[in-house]
């Protein structure tokens, strides 16, 4: 994924591989509001269990060193936060997918 030209596509391909391909089954939209509610309820009450059931074990290397250091936070004033924020450079930052 790191060397991929299209990181977003590569990331989603990996997610689909881990999750396992699933047939979506019947994709029609019911006309009856009660049937719509029941369909949503059935889907959302079982989706996590179904994903976990079909998930594959994959080796994951995050290439990040393990850090045992502790981070401590102290109370800061609004003025101090604004002062620090105003000296930061404006820039675009992105995640692994390049977005």
Describe this entry's structure for a reader.
This is Reverse transcriptase. The chain has one domain (about 5-85). It is mostly helical. It has helices at about 5-20, 35-55, 80-85. About 0% of the residues are buried.
Following the backbone from N to C, one meets helices and strands in this order, namely HHH
Q: What integer value in Å does the Rg equal?
A: 22 Å
- Structural class by secondary-structure content: mainly alpha
Count of spatially separate domains: 1
Number of strands: 0
Round the mean pLDDT to the nearest integer and report it: 78
- Helix count? 3
Q: What is the terminal separation in angstroms?
A: 14 Å
* Low-confidence region ranges: none
What overall geometry do the principal axes of the alpha carbons give?
Answer: extended
> Can you summarize the main beta sheet?
none
Helix content: 40-55%
Tell me the β content.
under 5%
Condensed summary:
The chain is mainly α. It contains three helices and no strands. The chain has helices spanning 7-19, 33-54, 78-87.
Essential attributes:
0% strand; mainly alpha; single chain; 99 residues; Reverse transcriptase; extended
